[in-house]
Write a structure and sequence with these properties.
alpha/beta; Rossmann fold; 4-stranded antiparallel beta sheet; single chain; 9 helices; 12 strands
Amino acid sequence: MTVPTLEMQGVSFAYEKDSVLKNLSLAIHRGEFVGIIGPNGSGKSTLIKLLGGFLPAASGTVYFDSRNILNVPRKTLARSIAWVPQEHHLAFPFRVAELVMMGRHPYLSPIRYEGEEDHRIASQAMQLTATTSFADRRFNEISGGEKQRVLMAGAICQEPEMMLLDEPTASLDIKYQMEILNILKRLNEQNNITQVMAIHDLHLASKFCQRLILLKEGQIVQDGSPEQVLTESHLEAVYETPVKVVRNQDDGSIYIFPGAPCTL
């Protein structure tokens, strides 16, 4: 097994006196597509932020390439790990193309401005995310699905080894959900970009993720393939409601139905 790109060892975290994560240990390897799942308040978003070094652990350590992530220069991290938040509120009305170009900031300096190569990379990122057609529009004037694709284009512009995403499909209709997840899948399969995302939709998680980490009250309940994690006993214990799990024989994805048994 190769050395993990990201690793947590005995990590706990609390907001003031409210414990959120408790003694978590896990490893993320290059090329994985990992989904973080669990009920509201289980610690999904906090876990993603700790993995990116955006929050300091109360105890334990997060490692990036075997180094304490808090000791890694922010510019180095920004060249390796791209962060895609669930929401992005901008006070200044940036144009879409300007916002995407901000992904090149880790490679710039006071004496190095955007050049031809930076513009080429930004253009490719917008083509991949189908955002070129509204490149000149203001970010605060476009739809929620379009905003999410713009944020993804900016992340791709960083040329990262890994993308950390906090519920990238939240509040989006199924068309935009599928567009965004298919982009992530393509980046994972064709560019070997590691994907780690918090996600609510268990069916989509099973369809796109190779590995799922199931959280409850800040602790890992199960960690494995969708088939290993998305079982009726595991989900009923975590979500505290009866469910029926049905496997789609065509694509292998898993459907979770509440209450009485259902068939496709």
